[in-house]
Amino acid sequence: MRSYEDELKEEMEYFNQTILEIQLQLSQKLTENGVSRDDIISSREEMWEDMGHSTGDIDKLVELAQYLQNLNMQTSSYFSEVDEIQKLKRLKDSPYFARIDFTEDGYSDLEKIYIGRHTLIDRNNEILIYDWRSPIASIFYRFELGPVYYQAPVGEISGNVSLKRQYEIKEGKFEYFFDANIQIVDEFLRKLLSQGTSAKMTTILETIQRDQDMIIRDEKNDLLMVQGVAGSGKTSVALHRIAYLMYQGGMSNLSHNNIVIISPNILFSKYISNVLPELGEDNVETLDFENICYDIIGDDRTLQTRNEFFEEIICADHDMEKDLIKSSMEFKTSSTFVIILKKLIFHYEYSMTPFEDIYYNNRYLFHRQLLKSKFLNRSEYISTCAGLKQIENIILERIREEKAGRLKKLEKFISKYPEHVFEIRPYARLISIKEISKLASNIRQFTNIDYFKLYYEIFSNKELFYTVAEGLELTENIEEIRVYTVKNLQGEVLKYEDALALTFLKIEMGNKHIYKDIKQVVIDEAQDYYPIHFEILNSLFPNSKYTILADINQTIEKHTKLDFYEEIQKMFKKESATLLTMSKSFRSTNEIMDFSSNFIDKSIELECFSRNGTLPEIIFRNTRKALDEKLVEIIKGYEKEDYKSIAVLCKSFKDSEILYGEIKDRLDIKLIDGNYYEDIIGSFIIPIYMSKGLEFDAVIIYDVDENHYNSEDDKKLLYIASTRPLHRLSLLYTGKASSLLKGINCNDIG
Question: Strand, helix or coil at 621?
Fold first, then answer.
């Protein structure tokens, strides 16, 4: 058996050889990349300036077009070179993190496979480093020593692994290595998890678990659903999956432009923005439903955001008010209401479209019934909006055919008036333009759809509502919801659920393929979405594959069961679909996870990666002033312990604002709202619903009294809040403690 010193000497030789190769390639790339960014910008500016002076010179314009084509190729080449240089710089910092010694069945040669962020091939065409996404690298994540296999382009390849080794290489320095087995890897992961959190989400290449790798590399399913407990790494795995798909998609031209992430909010999008660039890939577009609604409805109306909806329902003054808000949301985002909206479209086409007879040039051009017949008999692939535009174009084309005859009649008529004898033709044209303009305006009264008016009509017109809802099972308080909606629609702000319904209506009646280039959609925090959310996405991205991430325990003011995933599968109707679970949490200590598990359904499997820490503490003070003083003391204590991110979680943004006003002058702390763009480093006050998906070194849940937390919905909020910290959790209250805390094991510092 070889000694550690012998192994280290061999490893250092390989490391130095690899670093030398990286430096040589980097030097070569920097030398070859003679065209600078400034040169390209300057060339483009000169070209557009020349084009401005050459608008009348056809030969010159052709020459400039050819020059532009060459310049575009040069620009593309420049960015490709820059990308390669950045990859080499990353490799120089940390070339690889793992090695496996693999012998393929039927062969005697042992291959030493070094695994890193990117592939590195030397001048002799030998692979020094394999990209972590390469097929053979899957062995490292999925197997221990012994028989293994992996899926290669040529089929399954089997063999034997005789060594698994991991490395710690930082800033170009080889620090140490260790031969991996389950116990040692767990200890390495435990060490990583015991460190502080970072400003943004980081990569997990060195610690990807077997079940996580299965999700990352899944290419069989058009619909991949992941039920993962808090801290299981759902989002990080999804981002690594995106990087993997882009790596695999090189042959099928799958790029960052073909992928979109549906994010819960701006803060979350900012938090995850570093992962793909760290993996050497371009960032993909992130959208939230506010973006989607604004893109489709337009910005002529102010829309309530999802965070504002959460705030409204959490801060409702009375249970009756909260129940109405919730029931309105549940009804207008339900599959039943989707059917109602589809029936409304059918009813609109057959009974509500105000077609008119068309007269022009003293002639009867179209009867309204003929126009309606043409519209209703259009192709099934033509939307309501497009069908009406077809009718408009048919009418206007016929008017254009009649225009010459009409002008002659107008000229003859005008010639009878001496005052216009010198302007017969111009005056006739002016009258003709006014006639056609007025007629076109009348035509557009029935070829343009007023979507908001139609949506308002379904609630304000009681007879219409019950006509399109006939045969469907409606909620008991439907009349209350209908009246409540009419009142809301008369206001200045469009409620969140109404914005969603109006968005769906406009998509169904108009253009469904706004995002036609998207091939992969990743939906995070999907447990808070309702059927209409998925119907909208299905319409916008009909040919896309989906990765849907959720945790049914982390819903806000909504109850979700496991059959939620069956409903998603029915809505998307994909040929291949699967549900995978991630039941192990890696974020919090055993003590914090044990505490958090008291707030969820015990039937849900929840496993904690074994890492011990301090028991959560519940702290009572007699007065609000004393409570705030204790809060400031705890935050300062956590700062002295060198915790980089400390979150004070309140039930609502309203509570957060009040608390911020009380303590902002006593320490350096920030208030996070729905438009927060900075990194998550320091001390913060944030409402629980905005903290979803984020993690902090330490968390303090404020005002955990019976008035604030007493219901099943509040229980979910406490679960979300108590699963945010990596290391420390404190709960503060004055008055009567929340009954939801009764019997929970913790440090009760009353």
Answer: coil
